[in-house]
From TrEMBL:
Pfam families: AA_kinase, Acetyltransf_1. GO terms for cellular component: cytoplasm. This is Amino-acid acetyltransferase. GO terms for biological process: L-arginine biosynthetic process. It is found in: Cytoplasm. GO terms for molecular function: L-glutamate N-acetyltransferase activity. It catalyses: L-glutamate + acetyl-CoA = N-acetyl-L-glutamate + CoA + H(+). Its main location: cytoplasm. SUPFAM superfamilies: Acyl-CoA N-acyltransferases (Nat), Carbamate kinase-like. It comes from Colwellia psychrerythraea. Belongs to the acetyltransferase family. ArgA subfamily. The gene is argA. InterPro entries: AceGlu_kinase-like_sf (IPR036393), Acyl_CoA_acyltransferase (IPR016181), Asp/Glu/Uridylate_kinase (IPR001048), GNAT_dom (IPR000182), NAGS_kin (IPR033719), NH2A_AcTrfase (IPR010167). CDD domains: AAK_NAGS-ABP, NAT_SF. PROSITE patterns: GNAT (PS51186).
Length: 436
């Protein structure tokens, strides 16, 4: 087996946990009309097909802003935009129907491709469209009648779930229908957000022009909370970016656990984001009422109270208050209403580009949730920010749990020199390591 074959096998094995994690999950994927005209869109279609074949329940929501503008220019219609919202009169509505209808058919046709020499061969993807979006008129605002511009009233979640259970990809256009038989022009972001919320989707994925969310210094944000996204909102942002940010915020605040932003210009970003550890864009996690933060001197008493039972059992090495006060900056805590319910420490070994995970403790009353996973993830982010490439830990009783978090048992000689010299042979702790 040559190196390229070995690399492929290694990648496939590393991707397996993510493949299993996404099977059966409901994902809403949104992209604008700009993505459809990009040369990479054929690859996105293939990836959508692949996701469905891996058992992901997919709702695809497309936009059509540039296509609508083209149709309006062809008809000699002026673009009437007030407060960044298009006023859709009867003539504009004809252009909207033409653009969205043509685009939807185009996407359906691409998803139906099954040529022998194409990645879609044998996929037999079923695409379902319909009147799943019930809309209402935006009405008159500040004296402006927006006519056939509307907003989502409700999503037919039962109808969509029925199609998803049949194995179909549900394709939604930025169009809605009223109970009185009218058609309304909707914003892509409104349709995608309300659909994700109504379906209680596991993920909302936005394909954007940028790599992901960009901070105010121009750097890519790899991962953040919904709370952080709120800080990115700026009056000087373009309207489309504001719509995207508000979509993420609203989804995260209404039950969608994860949002992702990846570039539609990259032929690997979508799969890399979902099936690799480091991803390719931005992962936004729903805010929890329980706050993860770096410990301060005020947290010493709470940490001591949390770890004392395990110290008495001999599971943890005893720490004095004085030592804990000196090392408090190494600790991360998880708080619920200002009470510490979990903690963990990270001790960097920068010369070896690694760090020790220690003192991972969760209050017995809170061990049924994913709090352990969350605090380990916080340590991993902290370690990456310090330039570390791996983590290690010593444990006598918790090896199985750490294996579940991706740590692998290693021989003692894999420890960095500084830690190897301090190893306590009487405790006979096992060594676990993880690349990050």
């Amino acid at each position: 087996m040559n190196n390229s074959d070995q690399n492929y096998v290694k990648w496939f094995r590393n991707a397996a946990p993510y493949i299993n994690a996404h099977r059966g999950k409901t994902v809403v994927l949104m992209f604008g009309g700009e993505a459809v005209t990009h040369p990479n869109f054929a690859n996105i279609i293939h990836d959508i097909s692949l996701l469905r074949s891996l058992g992901v329940k997919l709702v695809v929501v497309h936009g059509a802003r540039p296509q609508i503008e083209d149709r309006m220019q062809q008809r000699g219609l002026e673009d009437n935009v007030v407060n960044n919202i298009r006023v859709t009169d009867a003539q504009t509505l004809v252009a909207v129907k033409d653009a969205t209808g043509s685009l939807r058919l185009h996407i359906e046709a691409l998803l139906s491709t099954g040529l022998v020499n194409s990645p879609m061969h044998g996929s037999q993807i079923r695409v379902s469209t319909g009147n799943f979006v019930i809309a209402k008129p935006m009405g008159v605002r500040n004296g402006v009648d927006y006519k056939y511009t509307g907003s989502v009233r409700r999503i037919d979640s039962d109808g969509i779930n029925m199609q998803l259970d049949y194995g179909s990809i549900v394709l939604l256009s930025p169009i809605g229908y009223s109970p009185t038989g009218e058609v309304f022009n909707l914003a892509l972001e409104d349709v995608a957000t309300q659909t994700a919320i109504a379906l209680k989707a596991d993920k909302l994925i936005a394909l954007t022009e940028d790599e992901g969310l960009i901070d105010k210094s121009g750097e890519l944000i790899r991962s953040c909370s919904v709370r952080t996204v709120k800080t990115l909102l700026d009056e000087n942002d373009c309207h489309v970016r504001q719509l995207l940010l508000r979509s993420i915020i609203q989804s995260g605040e209404n039950g969608v656990e994860r949002c992702h932003c990846v570039s539609y210009q990259s032929d690997s970003a979508l799969l890399q984001e979902l099936f690799t550890r480091d991803g390719a864009g931005t992962l936004i996690a729903k805010d929890h009422k329980e706050l993860i933060a770096t410990a301060t001197i005020d947290d010493v008493a709470g940490i001591l109270e949390l770890i004392q039972p395990l110290e008495e059992e001999g599971v943890l090495v005893k720490r004095s208050r004085e030592l804990l006060e000196m090392e408090i900056g190494c600790f991360t805590v998880l708080k619920k209403e200002d009470v510490i319910i979990a903690c963990a420490a990270l001790y960097p070994y920068p010369e070896a580009e690694t760090g020790e995970v220690a003192c991972v403790v969760i209050d017995p009353d809170y061990r049924k949730g994913n709090r352990g996973e969350r605090i380990i993830s916080a340590l991993e982010l902290n370690a990456k920010s310090k330039g570390l490439t791996s983590l290690f830990l010593l444990t006598t009783v918790s090896g199985h749990w750490f294996r579940e978090q991706g740590f692998i048992e290693m021989p003692l000689d894999k420890l960095p020199e500084g830690k190897k010299q301090m190893y306590n042979f009487q405790r006979n702790s096992k060594v676990f390591m993880k690349d990050i």
